[in-house]
Amino acid sequence: MRKLMVWLMVAGLLLSGSAIGWAADEDLTGTLEIVHWWTAGGEREAMDALYDVFRDRYPLVSLIDASISGGAGIAARAVLISRIVGGRPPGTFQVHAGAGTIDPYAEPGFLEPITFIYEEEGWVDVFPEPLLDMLRFDGEYWNVPVNIHRSNVLWYNSAIFEEHGLEPPATMDDFFDVAEELEAAGIIPLALGETWTVVHLLETVLLGTLGPEAYDGLWDGTTDWGSNEVRDALVYFDRMLDYVNPDFSALSWDEASGLVVDGDAAMNIMGDWAHGYFMAQGWTPGVEYGWQPTPGTAGAFQALSDTFVLPQDAPDRDVVVAWLRTVGTREAQDAFNPIKGSISARVDADRDAYDVYQESAMDDFAQDAIVPSLQHGAAASPEWMDDFISAVGSFVAHRDVDTLHNDLVASAEEALD
User: Fold this and answer.
1) Residue among 249, 219, 193, 190 nearest 394 (CA)
2) pLDDT at position 23, please?
3) Beta carbons within 10 angstroms of residue 45's beta carbon
4) For labelling, which of 90, 95, 149, 215 has a CA lying 20 to 30 Å from the CA of 299?
């Protein structure tokens, strides 16, 4: 049914040949400070493309790029909460779609709902329903998506796999077979980075072990966290850590992906922002590197979305609204996403603007089971996210599966109580 709904929307838009929109006011003036965390290779260039579209529409507006480096927005969130509580909100800021990241801002009243923009722009008809579900909170829309990322992707160095006669692993058993051969050849099987990338890895293992329906059930209470299946996933996860670079805790996500580019590591499990990073290093998808769903997750699309919001009492509010309207357009999204590595949040995207990986992601999004990411804010409450991340951080130090399992059961019980 989800696939049918998405493609019916696409067909309707193509047949109508029309779009709802607004006329940009070239005389609009003011200043717009934008807080975001896109500082790695590929991300910076994608943000510049978004700025170019906005400047074409509003040449008199001054833009302040207030980027804060740090993957998954962890560093940015700390700064933002401090500024907002202190009554100094920026014009707009980046936030992931989903309860885990929007609640801390919307629930205390730090954001202004922007349902009026959705209604005026007709976005309910161009953003797919699975994404709209992640954007609604208390019956309102609070943020504008600029993309859809897929997080359950295994990337691999094509030359290494060809040299050693290996196939990318489709199952967990395949992964360990490939990892053994790579390690014997003196190659790091799996590149990994700091704590949030470890959590990212774990949630893909949970998805691959449980399947999409049971994985979804982890977050609504219909799947038992104390089950043997969850423990099996944790055992797989623990084994995978035996095949990663020993300095992983000191590396950012892009530095970990860089190990694959340099040929020091063969694989990396990371969202498709890694696709943007690889392209920024001069690699061509399907040539120097390949991809496939992480082991066991074929048929599931673990989704997240980058968005921008309208803070309460934002300076130069009209300028912020103009930014939000702009980033929701097809033009802006088709300029941004081909560089970022993600796909458009709109179902009427110009497929000709996207590459072979992104076309495959569009096709998979239209037909796969869509599941949320915990690490990237779509699956659980902020408190549950923090407890989960803390449990994984502790596990990395002691590597005790039973303790991790007990910690995750306890955090789920508290969150679902």
Assistant:
1) 249
2) 61
3) 15
4) 95
Enter the tokens of residue 342: 């993600």
Instruction: Give me the phi and psi of 221, to 5 degrees please.
Output: 90, 0
Tell me, what amino acid is at 34? I
Which run of H or E residues covers position 302? strand 300-304
Q: Note the pLDDT tens digit of each residue in 70-127.
A: 766 677 777 888 888 788 899 999 999 987 667 677 767 889 999 999 999 999 999 9
* All domains in the chain, ordered by first residue: 2-149+305-372 (3.40.190.10), 150-302+375-416 (3.40.190.10)
What's the rounded Cα separation, in Å, for the pair 390 and 197? 13
> What is the rounded distance in angstroms from the CA atom of residue 364 to the CA atom of residue 122?
25
First to last CA, the chain: 32
| Nearest-angstrom CA–CA distance, 117 and 21 | 10
CA distance 320 to 330: 18
Q: Could you report the per-residue pLDDT of 249-269, keeping only the tens digit for each?
A: 999 999 999 999 999 999 999
From 7, 59, 39, 84, select the one nearest 326 (Cα to Cα).
59
- CA–CA distance, 134 with 143 (Å, rounded to integer): 10
CA 366 vs. chain centroid, Å, equals 17
- Read off the tokens for 71: 């993957």
Q: Which of 225, 386, 203 is nearest to 294 (CA)?
A: 203
| Strand, helix or coil for residue 86 | coil
Pairing of strands 369-372, 140-141: unpaired
- Which residues fall within 8 angstroms of residue 113, CB to CB, at 6 or more apart? 106, 140, 141, 142
Residue 3 makes CB contacts below 8 A (sequence gap 6+) with 366, 367
Neighbours of 162 (CB within 10 A): 10
Q: Which of 169, 158, 161, 100 is nearest to 307 (CA)?
A: 100
Residue linked to tokens 């009243």: 109
**How big is the CA angle at 237 (ends 234 and 241), to the nearest 5 degrees?**
140
Q: Tell me if 155 sits within 8 A of 281, measured CB to CB.
A: no
Residue 121 vs residues 54, 238, 408: alpha-carbon distances, Å: 17, 47, 42
Q: How far is CA 275 from CA 93, 152, 347, 358, in A?
A: 23, 12, 21, 9
